[in-house]
Amino acid sequence: MSPGGPGSPVSQAGPVSPTGPVSPLNPASPVSRGRTRPVHHRGVHATARIVATPAGLPVLESAGPLALRRTRATGPYTRVTVVGAMTAPLGGDRLAVEAEVRDGARLTVDAAAATVALPGRDAGHARYDVRLTVGGESELRWLPEQLVSAHGSDLRMRTVVDLAATARLVLREEQILGRHGEEPGTLVTRLTVRRAGRLLLDQELAYGPGAPGGWDGGAVLAGHRAVGQLLVVDPAYDERAAEPRLIGDSAALTPLAGPAVLVTAVAPDALRLRRVLDEARAAL
Prior knowledge:
Layout: E1 16-17, E2 20-21, E3 36-39, E4 43-53, E5 56-61, E6 66-71, E7 78-84, E8 94-101, E9 106-111, E10 115-117, E11 126-134, E12 139-143, E13 147-149, E14 154-163, E15 168-177, E16 186-195, E17 198-207, E18 226-233, E19 245-247, E20 251-255, E21 260-267, H1 270-283
Parallel strand pairs: 4-8, 7-9, 8-11, 9-12, 10-13, 11-14, 12-15, 13-15, 14-16
Antiparallel strand pairs: 1-2, 3-4, 4-5, 6-7, 15-18, 16-17, 18-21, 19-20, 20-21
Family: Belongs to the UreD family.
InterPro entries: UreD (IPR002669)
Subcellular location: Cytoplasm
């Protein structure tokens, strides 16, 4: 993850703890203890964890480049912000975030800056896994900043969500294909959502070198370099299903076979993509 504005490639050397600088390669550092396993020539392996209950955050565990901070929230939501503690993901990295929202809890997870996938010394691809579990009568707003696929990078990202029947979810994903003036790296993302044990959505997208032919053609991106999804799952849709419709010139709202809607959008840049998804979110 790289600190800065949305899509910014600027990074910092490492996080700072109350006891001094934190190095992910220092086993005595607060971030490195526990679930971080640095591999000097094969990337960093790290898993960060969040557990939210109606009473608060019994688990908030940072790891490696994934620094979690409780931040100020409004309304009934507990809020956690992901702060980039070092440049990641790089080739060979294996990163993961696990979030569990227990029965009756309400959690918002956002990020301080865009995530920039970069090439590393390791020739292999990087992995970034997100595993979300949302319990009964609970709600998760998963609202990270953009994922930027820089030239020469190779990232596989997998998001798996398990929802209780009465859970609510707002999930946003945004992919920016290349920084300003450069070609994208290779990016493969997959989003799988299950509700009450039944599959609700299973979608895979692939872009850049090595992706199936036509990913940049008129039937897919039509030359756009920003693509995003907004998924809203709410039991209220059992009573009033959303109507399919276009949103502007480059986004569409599609009801799913369940109490959910999916908005997909393309845009020439990150700013206009966010505007379209924010408009859709407000309408929903």
